[in-house]
Design goal:
Blueprint lengths: L2 H23 L12 E6 L4 E9 L2 E11 L5 E8 L6 E5 L7 H15 L3 H15 L1 H12 L11 H18 L5 H4 L5 E8 L2 E12 L4 E4 L23 E4 L2 E6 L2 E6 L7 E7 L2 E8 L1
Antiparallel strand pairs: 1-2, 1-5, 2-3, 3-4, 6-7, 7-8, 9-10, 10-11, 12-13
Helix pairs in contact: 1-5, 4-5
């Protein structure tokens, strides 16, 4: 058998093995920062799913904090989202209050690197962007180098040439993902991203850390959360000491006064209404 043909077949086999290894190791570079963290996934049509992310090459699993009883009365412990379903995701939110102390430190370090990238980080990013820009040209060059057996009539089938070309393109695709010159200028810069969820339009303001073909990653995003609680007088005449708490918001009646306390680090704006006998008597806003 011709040594050139054997060499070409060996290259195809090696490229196949390398491509398989890269497919098994490849993770979306934006989702990598969410691996092992509790998140809330907002899907199209108003669907909301929550759980801890377990990222894999083919997608990710959301592990519920507790077992959930489905409407059809069976217990569910997790939810799977495949890469083909990424287009159905509108946003993935990870709240700082839900992170452990160690995860918060890693998040702060990532925020610092986004604002002030080091020389090595800049070099790696520039190299990756170069590969993305030149990926088509590099693919043609590698195809020519690895497909030298093409002039050997009949020794290498056309399907093998196509397979070899596809392998080289896939390998280059895993080396660097899509490059967008417009987004690249905004990496490390505070940006505004508009998201539509359940018919409503939301704007998220944060630092653009990175981007991928499927996601934009924003850090240090202020996301308002609506908390509602009702404080009822313990004596029923407005002079008792009733109290209530939800999340970081706590409220307590002290005589004829209402004490509102914010136990969290984020700013809070409270809207207060006084009701008696089902009728609203007064309403005010506390900033």
């Amino acid at each position: 058998m011709d040594p050139t043909l054997l060499l070409t077949l060996g290259v195809i086999l090696a490229a196949t093995l390398v491509g398989a290894a890269l497919r098994g190791l490849h993770r979306d570079r934006c989702l990598r920062d969410f691996d092992g963290r509790p998140v809330i996934v907002l899907g199209k049509g108003g669907t909301v799913i929550w759980g801890t992310v377990r990222l894999q090459a083919t997608g990710f699993e959301l592990e519920y904090p507790t077992d959930e009883l489905d409407r059809q009365f069976h217990v569910e412990t997790s939810y799977l989202i495949y890469k083909s379903e990424y287009s159905d995701i509108e946003a993935i939110c990870c709240f700082l209050d839900d992170l452990s102390a160690q995860a918060r430190r890693r998040r702060d370090e990532a925020l610092e690197r986004a604002f002030h990238p080091g020389p090595l980080q800049c070099l790696v990013r520039q190299l990756r962007n170069f590969v993305n820009t030149a990926i088509d040209s590099l693919n043609e060059v590698l195809t020519l180098l690895l497909g030298r057996a093409r002039p050997l009539a009949g020794q290498l089938a056309g399907t093998s040439q196509t397979h070899l070309k596809g392998l080289t393109k896939n390998i280059l695709g895993y080396v660097g993902t899509s490059y967008d010159p417009l987004l690249e200028r905004l990496v490390g810069v505070q940006s505004v991203v508009e998201v539509r969820h359940d018919g409503e339009r939301y704007e998220f303001v944060g630092v653009l850390r990175d981007y991928s073909p499927d996601f934009l990653e924003l850090l240090d995003v202020y996301l308002p959360r609506i908390l509602r609680l009702r404080v009822t007088s313990a004596q029923g005449d407005g002079g008792g000491g009733g109290e209530a708490r939800v999340g970081a918001l706590a409220a307590r009646l002290e005589g004829s006064s209402l004490l509102i306390r914010n136990r969290g680090n984020a700013p809070m704006r409270a809207s207060v209404s006084l009701e008696e006998g089902g009728r609203r008597l007064a309403r005010g806003i506390v900033a």
